[in-house]
Amino acid sequence: MKLDLKAKASYGLAAVGKDMVYALSSGYVLYYYNVVMGLSATFVGIILMVARVFDAVNDPVMGIIVAKTNSRFGRFRPWLFTGTILNAFVLFALFAVPGGLEGKQLMVYFAVVYILWGTTYTIMDIPYWSMIPAVADTHAERENLSVIARSCAGVGFAVITVATMISVAKFGGGSSAADYRIGFRWFTLIISCFFILASVIACINIKENSSVNMKTASVGQMFKSLFKNDQAMIIVIAIICVNTALYITSNLIIYFFQFDIGEAGWEGSYALFNTFGGGLQIIAMMIIYPLIRKKLSATTVFRLCLLMEIFGYFVLLIMAFTGATAVFLIFIPAFFIFSGNGMLTVLTTIFLADSVDYGEFKTGHREESVIFSMQTFVVKLASGLAALAASVGLDLINLDTDAAVQSSKTIFGLRTVMSVVPMIGLFVALFIFRKYKLDEKELAKIASKLEREDPSAAGI
Q: Which of 109, 232, 288, 362 has its CA 20 to 30 A from that of 339?
């Protein structure tokens, strides 16, 4: 079936709503429950870590459930609709804590609701991405629909990153914790309603081809395939290190603007910084990477990007300790960090694809779906590790969320955790990547041998 403009636009709109919801939860739940609600950062981090790991393990289970679904509304749309409704309600509950809850009651409430949020998000997310082969017949249409969805998802993520704190302060009528509590409730209600509307439009305007089968991979299959493919293992470890570094910074940058820079109207500066960083990542993927790639090999660009990020974090650390914290000055290290990360996002996907060819050459089995399922798993794992590291770091430095001015030791600790810890992760990635051998020459040799030989008989 050929997709019309209405179907493509509807699918993209659903991606906007879906990633707005994800960005709100992943980017602000630590801040909300720690700064606004007063829970221990370490406790919040532990729950985030447990929930993310559970969510990552739960993905293949949901994939199997969707694959076995057979209804008159199709295989994917019933779960997309159901997951959206459930997730929207749980999201509102996550950022609209009932009055009177505190202490252990609040801790239990957060743990239950957040794990429910991850579960209901999976119910919606898995069928959304898995339905592409069922709604687009040709490779070109599927690629085009994937590009539309990824681009629209980026828009949704960027909107939340830029608009959240400005909107929360406006809806709440001030900058106190009580004001933010009100602001988050109203802002989340608006986002939840848009999310439901966008998914309903997609379910109405997109038609499925019921004859398409859906391939799924269990967690056991993912790790079994990974251990047989040393080059995929290297890239997976690199993905964990790179994403953990960025997520630590993403979790802590809001604390940096509020408690370190600490100027009135910090929400605007924070939004401006996020606008610059998000836009730069997109530019790096679409413009900077193709230009650099014309001159350098992919593996060289990967190492260059890691060094760019390390340099950016080093400059950020120096600027923080010298007091050069004006938002436009922070754009300097941000350029190296975000542009490097944008290109690394492209490269890790390419390298994973190359590792599939390598795995086929080495074992005689081609396992694209299994390897790329592992990518989703490790990104969620990195997100959980980063949330835990950032949360424990906040408690170790004794950050007082009720104090307008922090101690010098706390500020020192915040700057160190936000910059030095990510640098360590990136150095680990740089060290691990030394053993990656799938450069252009090696890939050409593998491709040539796969064409000439029986892959099951090949060795490396």
A: 232
Contact status, residue 54 vs residue 384, Cβ threshold 8 Å: no
Phi, psi of 40 (to 5 degrees): -60, 135
Residues in the chain: 460
pTM of the model: 0.83
pLDDT 10s digits, 76-126: 899 999 999 999 999 999 999 998 898 999 999 999 999 999 999 989 988
CA atoms of 392 and 410, how far apart (whole Å): 13
With both helix axes pointing from N to C terminus, report the angle between 230-255 and 266-283 in degrees, rounded to the nearest 10: 160
Tokens found for residue 52: 């993310």
pLDDT of residue 18: 94
Centre a 10 Å sphere on the Cβ of residue 452 and count the other Cβ atoms it contains. Answer: 8
Tens of pLDDT, residues 173-184: 988 899 999 999
208: tokens are 């499925």
By the 8 A CB rule, do 228 and 359 touch?
A: yes
> Between helices 408-432 and 368-396, what is the axis angle to 10°?
160
Contact of 52 with 115, CB cutoff 8 Å: no
Query: Of the candidates 79, 421, 111, which has an alpha carbon nearest to the alpha carbon of residue 245?
Result: 421
CA distance 235 to 449: 23
* Residue 319: its H or E element: helix 298-322
